[in-house]
Amino acid sequence: MTPHVVIIGGGFGGLNAALSLARRNVRVTLVDRRNVHLFQPLLYQVATGGLSPGDITSPLRRILRRHRNVRVWLTDATGFDLDNHLVQLRDGSTHYDFLVVAPGVRNHYFGHHDWARVAPSLKTVEDAIEIRRRVLLAFERAELAETDDERKAWLTFAVIGAGPTGVELAGAMSELGRDTLRRDFRAIDTRASRIVLVEGADRTLPPFPAKLSTQCQRQLERLGVEVRLESRVTAIDGDGVSIETADGSSRLAARTVLWAAGVTAESLGQVLADAASCPTDGQGRLMVNEDLSVAGYHNVFVIGDLAHFDHGLPSPLPGIAPVAMQQGRYVAQHIVADIRGAASGPFRYRNKGQLATIGRAAAVADLGPRLRFSGYPAWILWLFVHLMYLVEFQNRVMVLLQWAWHYITWNRGARIITVPPSDPSREPDP
Amino acid sequence: MTPHVVIIGGGFGGLNAALSLARRNVRVTLVDRRNVHLFQPLLYQVATGGLSPGDITSPLRRILRRHRNVRVWLTDATGFDLDNHLVQLRDGSTHYDFLVVAPGVRNHYFGHHDWARVAPSLKTVEDAIEIRRRVLLAFERAELAETDDERKAWLTFAVIGAGPTGVELAGAMSELGRDTLRRDFRAIDTRASRIVLVEGADRTLPPFPAKLSTQCQRQLERLGVEVRLESRVTAIDGDGVSIETADGSSRLAARTVLWAAGVTAESLGQVLADAASCPTDGQGRLMVNEDLSVAGYHNVFVIGDLAHFDHGLPSPLPGIAPVAMQQGRYVAQHIVADIRGAASGPFRYRNKGQLATIGRAAAVADLGPRLRFSGYPAWILWLFVHLMYLVEFQNRVMVLLQWAWHYITWNRGARIITVPPSDPSREPDP
User: Fold this and answer.
1) How many Cβ pairs closer than 8 A exist between chain A and B?
2) Bridging pattern class, strands B263-265 and B256-259
3) Phi-psi region of A352 (alpha: psi -120 to 50; beta: other; left: phi over 0)
4) Which chain A residues touch B143 with a CB distance below 8 Å?
5) Does the complex come out with an ipTM higher than 0.90?
6) Which of A159, A367, B182, B305 could form a disulfide with A371 if both were Cys (CB 3.0 to 4.6 A apart)?
7) Per the residue annotation, which of B130, B143, B146, B168 is the catalytic one?
8) What is the mean pLDDT of residues B194-219?
9) In the CATH hierarchy, which fold is given to the domain comprising A115-261?
10) pTM summary value
């Protein structure tokens, strides 16, 4: 019987594994609880009204439709029986010959669960819609505010964490107030809106070289973003943020707080770690072998953000799309070789560089020690790389057109505030 | 002091009133609880994954940004003190010299409130997202179904009501199964999906001439839609629909039921009717004077779907966009004339025809007794008229491109299933 490969998760890692196994002599089942592949690097554009969710998602079924040996199951994986090669699903279980686990990570508030309610973070499409709703509503509330203090608090936006996501959000929100919405209101001047970016480390974009961090900060400040480094958040509530620095503690009155400071493994990661007696790191990631398998189970692989891979490296590989994609392709080749009885070498990450965008025509690029640059050329490169990665042709063309349109008109069209269904009679599932 | 015109509702009626009052010597306040104008005639495309919500909505502020005498308030109108010229808002009240009330209608289940939960209807963007979620999930559930009966029930879709919305939905859903999703599944043949359109009257599109109803039905049947006329729905639950005809009653096993059968006035209509002691019709619409004012209040106007206007007509004007738009423009001119002390003639509706689309390259057009046609030419006309009406240039171009893309590829890209937030800790308002 043709070997059965079960892949859990249709993100960059899982999807690339599935695509690489297409037309090979295996049966592939891709399990995801979402019906789409999400192009996460552009999620901040949905959160700030530049793109619609449909622009940055592609139905998994459509991406895989031509590959008849791959099927997609829209369901949840809930557990593992590794000795009997079984995955438990919400509605049954399935036998595998090879298992690839790639559920990714979710946001993490360092134990402050109550912060999630007041400071949404950006990981899913629903998160992005919620952030868009809050940011746009804040301007509406400011327009109707009756006191100066209230108006100011609605026009102050705090972004916690100056990693790539925090920097993107802060840059895009600054453009929203300074350009897009500038002429839309009557009682407020949206250019007076304040974006405060709070970071615990001593520079923005900690994973990048220090020189680019400085350039990133300069570009942010040119956009009017206040960057506060070496600042630790000690409390978040509906009225603002409490911040502690070496100089003491202070309070920022901000009605809108966004969280971009931490991630932790999806809970399925712990379920697998328990089943395999596999150690995890501080972020809940599973320590994997050189071939991405889990110790003791040569046919079980962990890839993407959930994998802690540090063989021969000074620090573990970061949770970024290129790592996950290369791991997905590696695992597929490894499985095909294994079936043939051939051996594979260990996984090696080929670092092609890192990019981060800051705003309109502003970005930083790190393509190795001798190729680090920022500003307009970095932004053009960023745009090109991201459009090329967009899985589907339609999305690629549409997003490019939307982008060209924004660029010419400073406009953001996807500004609808949808109402979360508060009617409890609406069931989550039909 | 410059006269103050308060307009409640940013739909076709209210928005056209505001646009016609721009640059006139009045102050205009447009009150809406949504921040966007919704192009309702294309809402069925969102419900079936063809377009994103952002494609058919435009921020009210952006449409009105150049008109400095018009401001937008995102809030709810809650009551009226007509003798003192006051509108009560959720957060205060405002004085008016002229009041234009255009809140529109909402869906109506003829007293069967429990049907709303199992059979969503199509009036708001949230409705469309919910319908899209249910329709797409039904195919996913069918793919994983364990019995034939279960599979069939998931692949049966009932649409209640064969007015324009029901016909559009049924046609688009048929295309979804027959073309768009055809190659996406492995365990099911989506072409086997059944669309049943249930109508109480003896023909589809009751407001259209009988000849076009026949052609509409023929086009629907060519798309594989089962049309059941003279059929009354007596019960809807999670398993299907009970239908009564002259021949007796029957049961249709369908896990997905959509409601397109009835509307009633927004509740604000009754609040105004009570305040003005104004009679209403069976659908809750207010009986208006020849100049669209409310009896006894020459400075209070009701326009759009909420107005019952039948002066000199065999039947009241239907609740369609062209009527609302013409009424909005009329009221604006009437107010400007009134301020100058001039008189206005009564409102006259200029019927330029009616269009309804059925599916890809299928539609019916009624442009008067000698100009009634259907099929491809009617569809092209429908497409042209609807694109021209789209308020914003960006949307117009984008929607045309999306449409061209679908037409060439049979594809529908906006197929994301979003998860309704079930976490009660997520507050509706920040």
Assistant:
1) 170
2) unpaired
3) alpha
4) 73-74
5) no
6) A367
7) B168
8) 93
9) FAD/NAD(P)-binding domain (3.50.50)
10) 0.90
